[in-house]
From TrEMBL, chain A:
Keywords annotated in UniProt: Amino-acid biosynthesis, Branched-chain amino acid biosynthesis, Magnesium, Metal-binding, Thiamine pyrophosphate, Transferase
UniProt-listed Enzyme Commission number(s): 2.2.1.6
Protein name from the UniProt record: Acetolactate synthase
Similarity field: Belongs to the TPP enzyme family.
Species of provenance: Halogeometricum salsisoli
Compositionally biased residues, Acidic residues: 10-34
NCBIfam families linked to this entry: acolac_lg
Automatic annotation (TrEMBL), chain B:
Organismal lineage: Archaea, Methanobacteriati, Methanobacteriota, Stenosarchaea group, Halobacteria
One family name in Pfam for this protein: ACT_AHAS_ss
Region (Disordered): 1-52, 203-230
Record carries keyword Transmembrane helix: no
Pathway in which the depicted protein is active: Amino-acid biosynthesis; L-isoleucine biosynthesis; L-isoleucine from 2-oxobutanoate: step 1/4; Amino-acid biosynthesis; L-valine biosynthesis; L-valine from pyruvate: step 1/4
EC numbers for this chain: 2.2.1.6
Domain of life: Archaea
Protein's UniProt name: Acetolactate synthase small subunit
Annotated ranges, domain ACT: 56-133
Matches recorded under PROSITE patterns: ACT
Gene: ilvN
Bias (Basic and acidic residues) ranges: 42-52
Amino acid sequence: MSEPAPPTRDDDEADGATDATGESEPESESESESTDPTPVTTGASSVIRALENAGVEAAFGVQGGAIMPIYDALYDSDIRHVTMAHEQGAAHAADAFGVVRNEPGVCLATSGPGATNLVTGIADANMDSDGVLALTGQVPSGMVGSDAFQETDTIGVTTPITKHNYFADDADAVGDTVGEAFALAGEGRPGPTLVDLPKDVTQGGTDREPGPAETPKTTTPKTVPDDDAVAAAARAIEDAERPLMLLGGGVIKADAAEEARAFAREFGIPVVTTMPGIGSFPEDDELCLSWAGMHGTGYANMAVTHTDVLVAVGTRFDDRLTGGIDTFAPEAEVVHIDIDPAEISKNVHADYPVIGDAGNALDALSSEIAADPDTEEWREQCLTWKDEYPMDYATPEDEPLKPQFVVECLDEATSDRAIVTSGVGQHQMWAAQYWTFTEPRTWVSSHGLGTMGYGLPSAIGARLAAEDDQEVVCVDGDGSFLMTIQELSVAVREELDITVAVLNNEYIGMVRQWQDAFFEGRHMAAEYNWCPEFDKLAEAFGARGWRVDDYDEVADAVEEAIDYDGPSVIDFHIDPRENVYPMVASGGANGKFALSEDQL
Amino acid sequence: MSSEDSQANNSDEEIPKHGLQGPHPDERPHPTGRRNSQGIRIDPEVEAEHSPRRAVISALVEDEPGVLSRVSGLVSRRQFNIESLTVGPTTVDGHSRLTMVVEEPDPGIDQIEKQLAKLKPVIAVGELDDDMVRTELVLLKVEGEEPDKVHAVTDMYEGKTLDAGPRTITVQLTGDEQKIDDAVDAFRQFGIIEIARTGQTALARGDQATVPGEEPGTSGEPTTPANYDD
């Protein structure tokens, strides 16, 4: 399939880490040679050197014709490569690895179908501002544009879904390009970057050691906010009667959870989060009203609806959060802290924009506020709403298993630092609603793009990024799980301690919920009663599997699965008619959340 | 299949009304919607609505392959309409200036600038003041039956005849948008066969820098990026 012969490796056996072989250009090895096991000889080896320089520990990918030189160079590297079953899995795993580590994750794919299979994962990372570096093989540059075998215009395809992408056309520069792409992915507002690597470039000879990874100077964001902007925002907060903090995913990415917690506690300001912001504030804290939005808590949405000064940090005001813009926080002046100036007044007008790093901005605001706002009455009000609209569910013994109960059991059986990943659908909402998150980077999910199938590959990425004593639980749905179930083979091969809890209602449940509410219960293509038996499938893959139908089996299965030191799957057959509430109708007012179907 | 029973429950009244406890939406206090479609809080005294206006945005970009498609792709996928787009090299090696005319309400124009500023090859972006110097070039091919009259109109608009044959005459005109529109109108009487317009290109007047932070071109120095300073 790939006609040019790969470059011959001089040391064809593993002959020791210090073996600096190769008759080519011995004079080039002077400075960096003392620590580097092998000198850079090709574009591919300089790419790998750039990754090593950037501190990359793991990469996820799938082999293929045009990426073979890169993989060949990886052979000599200490970077752990995890072969995934599908490139989409590689992108999601890299994404999740990055989320947990708070640094860009790396994925690799070959040209053409390999690159296009990455697209969903890259788009997902882009919507959630997750740093991901994607390296794609490309046909030799002389053949680019000729519709060659496995050729796709990867740059063209990925331009709208990357922070930036690079076509590497020079073997001497390719290492620096990859370093720059890595740095850019993690800088400021993180996001995915991609380097397309033609095979002749990665095979081409070079002795150029890549320099330190530097971001392009045209992209350096402002991290320290203007004094005037901070002062204006501080005045607004001082005068607030009903201030509310809205913490988005940016708080976690900026590593500013501590600053946000300190700020809220110092001034007694209640907190809601967005869904990506889950974990930025402990949900068991009295000030925390959990997350707002379409399926957020009633009390969070009441608070958003009635606040007079909304201090929004690191959020882009997605429509799943705001509902209808005209009814979103209708009485609030908005203080918007964000590192990306383009987010200011994009969806919701910011009366007090503060552009900068979230931690810096909150610290600056905190010292600028002279008089504490009087929030006692407002906090009381928020507590009243907590009582009025509790997050609860019925658990009659004779009814089928409730998904919320399963989530609570899993939460109880695991530590506070356990990492939860999820697919997309009803199960994702139940996991977000009924798991009590207290730490940043413990909730790994597909938010903006809503990618079904995100759960299992992201659990693999999270497992490799997590510390050994952190449990990793993937709460998945039957439909979502089936979309990337092949990655179970990877979890088995790599002996990853992951627990997959499938909330199986034999439906593509969120669609069924909407069909019930808005399409007269016409369940077109939403029935998934053709799903395989996941416990048996798990065993077929070499994992452990359980099937649970009743309440009294839940605790034992959960305990066994968590204890099992390897991938395990529990197929929870839940009430197929259970729906997710509260619910704000799409484009509706947040304060008019429905608590049952007849309120929609 | 074990789920047959649940599949049967399709009719409306059999779908159980699962849900949470709490007052009905209508029983809760609701402030009325006080933001407009652009998310701007409506001040009772000042209606914060914005009507579209025409803006000229100038961007200094690194002259790398694909920069034009990155810029135009970004603008179009965010549903902003480009009226015209011109691009060409500057005095600094590796820099190009891109001039874009857009018609959008103010928040949209602001977004275009900020989104452009985020692109890696974009060094600096700015909107030009009304007193900018701007011009457009147009080529017009008209029927050649009345060469004298065509020549007269061309003269009136300070144009230039580029080609005159027995059947067609092609003229070149430059000027601001209004002048070009007027000239095109004037040439209609002869029967216009083809038109090629370049779109506006513009520079700031006098000593002002066209984009924020731009150094005088004669220095040959690259411009300091200023895109993240508002």
